[in-house]
Amino acid sequence: MIHVKTKFERPDADVVKRLSAFSSATIHEAQGRKGALSSRIKPIDRSMSFCGPAVTVRCAPRDNLMLQVAIHYAQEGDVVLVGAGEFTEAGTFGDVLGNAMKAKGIAAMVTDSGVRDTADLIELGLPVFSGSISIKGTVKETLGPINHPIVIGDEVIYPGDILKGDADGVVVVRREEAEEVIALSQARVDKENELIKAYHAGGTTIELCNLTDVLKDKGLLVED
Which UniProt keywords apply (predicted)? Predict the structure, then answer.
């Protein structure tokens, strides 16, 4: 078995930049309510956000050997995505590895396991999204795959897929679907902006969301 694949197709930087303009929730809704990673995976600070191609890593629980290998091979702008079996009682990533990523220009770190040294990571300014925060240490023992498809946060993710993360969570977009998702996301934003204007102009939720007939069919009763 080849553990590390160093070559895979990344999206164009311009595509990543244009997709980054949209929120994770907008992207999720625009692409048919798909791609949302488990809500367990959240940023260590709500101000953190990122968008970039996935470098996928499989680590054994409580073991960050392959994470360190992945950092070595990752490129500027990549998002290192670590699946560790949702093992939350381990701090698999901290400020030292955070500085290693920051020095290489890596865009973000995402894991379904735990991280630590969060105050230092927040000060460093590297977006870090994790399934938990834990001070418990790790070992460096077990080999695993890098840049193979993995399942993390209930989603199958391929190397080169685009990940967008913000205060609400993380969503994945297939590299080959990115242009379509950008267009759909913009259309959704435009529609929502028009709806917001209509609310401020005096429109009501029942009227603007076309709920009159829906509520009637369901037998809604209102007492004046």
Answer: Lyase, Magnesium, Metal-binding, Methyltransferase, Transferase
Does residue 78 have a known ligand-binding role? no
Q: Give CATH for domain 13-181.
A: 3.50.30.40
d(CA 68, CA 161): 21
97 known member of a binding site: yes
Distances (CA, A) of 120 to 71, 130, 165: 19, 15, 20
Closest CA to 98 of 86, 107, 87, 89: 107
pLDDT in tens, 53-87: 999 999 999 999 999 999 999 999 999 999 999 99
Residue 157 contacts residue 175 (beta carbons within 8 Å): no
95 assigned to a ligand binding site = yes
| pTM of this structure | 0.95
Tokens of 216: 């009637």
Is residue 14 marked as binding? no
